[in-house]
Amino acid sequence: MARILTYEERDTWIHRLSGVTKLIFFLLWMLASMLSYDTRVLLTMVLGSLVIYKMSKIEWRQIGTVLKFILFFLVINLLAIFAFSPYEGVNIYGSRTDIVHLFGNYWLTKEQLFYEFNVLIKYVTIVPAVFTFIITTNPSEFAASLNRIGISYNVGYSVAIALRYIPDVQDDFLKIKHAQEARGIEMSGKASLLSRIKNTASIIFPLIFTSMDRIDVVGNAMELRGFGKHKKRTWYAGKTLKKADYIVITVSVIITVAALIITFHDGNRFYNPFA
Amino acid sequence: MTPIIEFKDYTFKYRSQVEPTLRDINLKIYPGEKVLIVGPSGSGKSTIVHCINGLVPFSFAGDITGTLRVKGEDPAKLGVFGMSKIAGTVLQDTNGQFIGLTVAEDIAFALENDMVPQEEMLDRVERVAEIVEVDRLLKNAPWELSGGQKQRVSMAGVMVDDVEILLFDEPLANLDPATGKRAIDLIDRISKERNATILIIEHRLEDALYRDVDRIIVVGEGRIVADLKPDEILAGNIFTEQGIREPLYIAALKHAGCRITEESRPQHIETMLLDSYKEQVKKWFQAAEYEKRKQSEESVLTVKDLYFSYIEGKQVLQHIHFDIHKGEMVSVVGKNGAGKSTLAGIICGFMKPTKGSILLNGEDIEGLSVKERGEKIGLVMQSPGQMISKPMIYDEVALGLAVRGVPEEEIKERVYHTLKICGLYPFRNWPISALSYGQKKRVTIASILVMNPEVIILDEPTAGQDYRHYTEIMEFLKEINERYGITIIMITHDMHLMLEYTDRAIVIADGHLIADDAPVNVLTDEMIADKAYLKKTSLYDLAVKCGIESPSEFAERFIHYERALREGEK
């Protein structure tokens, strides 16, 4: 079965970094790209993002489906911005350069196109970073790092345990769905949306009951092996912060600060080529 | 010597129950002993284990009277965590108890919780992984492992703590016969090498006795019914009285009128002294009658040259072809993951074959949707919980008809009729939650039966069931097969089921069909049994050792004899 967006072990310098380092980098990176509308900063970040993505040796099959999904929503988002606010760009940049009249009140302007281009590249800076983070970080190691920076291991472990059992629940779901379909409960496009929603119940209930049984077993199995005995625990998959980690954290901080200075030095977070 | 486990006048009642589950248990187990605890479902045998590991009374609350000492400690005081240092438990569900994201992490789990430093952990995991032979799989994820491998990881996960007692709760339940044999062998090795005290809970007696045990304890209705050496106990009749299935060779010897003695060492057929029984067995063999069941020639389901793969180039099924006749009961057997369930999935239309075709009554069903196929070929899942989606029995059984828009009146009539067939009519207005496991299973079968299918496919219909429930479910299936002419296909790795209830076995190994023959022939053929991870029946060994020329005929006569006995009882 294809497992998308899950950790896969490889040996690159990105994989070797500690989960904490990657989390810090990822959060700072997001902050910078959220705040900045400076096209120069964003384009540099896009480039950086792609370089990192390339270096992490992620394969297309791991992200293909999800990426297509995200692109689809991105396109809808861009169209919606235009539909609801066709002169957003004109307002921001304070000038209006018409390209072509579409219909009614809708004119396509250079400013709007440029504004939406900025929105687009914001996504492009973040998406590869998200993928890189998820796919190169061993969940247990990540849980370990969270614990090390002071977050209760229960939090980290619930993430790890969810990742462990999600594939099982998926398998259960598929089995139950098949059995119910064979009994005549239509879940494909042939049935109307309403009856499909109603029919979901006949899959959800068995799924919940099967999962509850599983939770019992898992709970007992964990307790029998001493989970929760002490306030702390050690981690088989834990990594200590190494030189590379400190370098990456320092560099991320520098990049973020630099990005924000460049963006805000003129008191406006938009870069204006029309001025 | 002081016992390592000692129950004294021990009684335990679950808070949710009226009657105690364990009554006046007096039991001593000494260090280094290997003890098999057998008993039917609900006899309290699993509760004994939970008392030792501390889940009783901490996870399962209730009232205790009497005393229990495990290595001098009281589990009810020491708690689950404290007990985990003394006794390790391997649960029945091989997948559910696998907690880590990789083999190594799962083995290390107990150490992590105990704050063992990382370096020491790496080393200890490595060492214990070698013992159970999973050291090459340390980085593998659970879904990349077979059931047997997961079980070995679980064993490593408790052994890593250097526990003195190992508790195995139905270790054979989810394994194919050959893997089960390997598990028993491994447990035996561990018990010898580590000198650990071992308790095995199991109702598959013959399989569990594959290696020597020191004692067998029989539990019935919460009491200890017997506590004897294997040879002693096999010479008596305690098992049959308690509803536990005796090893088949023992049953055959008894049918032949032999009085089994302790001195003949009946624990293993391989080493049993049979000289004094030979003549009697031979005589019985010649006298026992049997008739071959008449076969209908009309085929109902034909699979022609079927191929299937998820990923191109990696074939899951190859060149599968067979013909199932009307009114047959057929078993599909083979090792876990051999492609049996995939085959059922293709027949039901969940997946499309890459090549080949399936005919129902001579017509290709390629164009039919899952729903349309479902009206002719019903599928019953392994666990009732995977199918039941309505709170009331009537609604659950009516579901298939209701979604097909059958008129209310007709639904009522057909549901009532089906409930009568399934012996559930008196319960028609009951909530499903009030039913026993076996009855729930019947509800799921009824919900398929109500659609009048021609073929029913059952996935592991008796998995995890004791002899009584097994017989109940199987006799019911046999009845609907005989009385209503419904063709039944069962995916199973229960060799008894296949031998006793099916006319034919389709054997799949590594995606290939390697045999399509009478079960007795399959189970007396060493090569097929090996390849498909089945287990040769002990009847075969008995026949060979008694100098009977046709072991498969011997097995066949035995089955026939047992069947006649059962029908005589009714």
Structure summary:
The complex is a heterodimer of chains A (275) and B (570). Chain A has 275 residues and is mainly alpha-helical.
Structure in words:
The complex is a heterodimer of chains A (275) and B (570). Chain A has 275 residues and is mainly alpha-helical. Chain A folds into 2 domains: 1-138 and 239-275, no CATH class; 139-236. Chain A is built from 10 helices and 2 strands; from the N terminus they run H-H-H-H-H-E-E-H-H-H-H-H. Chain A has helices at residues 13-16, 19-35, 39-55, 60-84, 88-93, 110-136, 139-148, 153-182, 193-224, 243-264, and strands at residues 98-103, 106-109. A two-stranded antiparallel sheet of chain A has the order 1-2. In chain A, helix 2 runs antiparallel to helix 6, helix 2 packs parallel to helix 10 and helix 3 (39-55) runs parallel beside helix 6 (110-136). The longest helix of chain A has 32 residues, at 193-224. Chain A is flat, with a radius of gyration of 24 Å. The N and C termini of chain A lie far apart (54 Å). The model of chain A has no long low-confidence stretch (mean pLDDT 87). Chain B has 570 residues and is α/β, with parallel strands linked by helices. Chain B has 3 domains: 5-242, P-loop containing nucleotide triphosphate hydrolases (Rossmann fold); 247-287 and 538-570, no CATH class; 324-354 and 366-537, P-loop containing nucleotide triphosphate hydrolases (Rossmann fold), CATH 3.40.50. Helices cover 39% and strands 21% of the residues of chain B. Chain B has 23 helices and 19 strands. In chain B, the strands form 4 sheets. A 6-stranded mixed sheet of chain B has the order 5-6-7-3-8-9, sandwiched between helices. In chain B, strands 15-16-17-12-18-19 form a 6-stranded mixed sheet, sandwiched between helices. In chain B, helix 5 (118-131) packs across helix 6 and helix 22 packs across helix 23 (551-569). Chain B is globular. The model of chain B has no long low-confidence stretch (mean pLDDT 91). Classes of the chains: A mainly alpha (275), B alpha/beta (570).
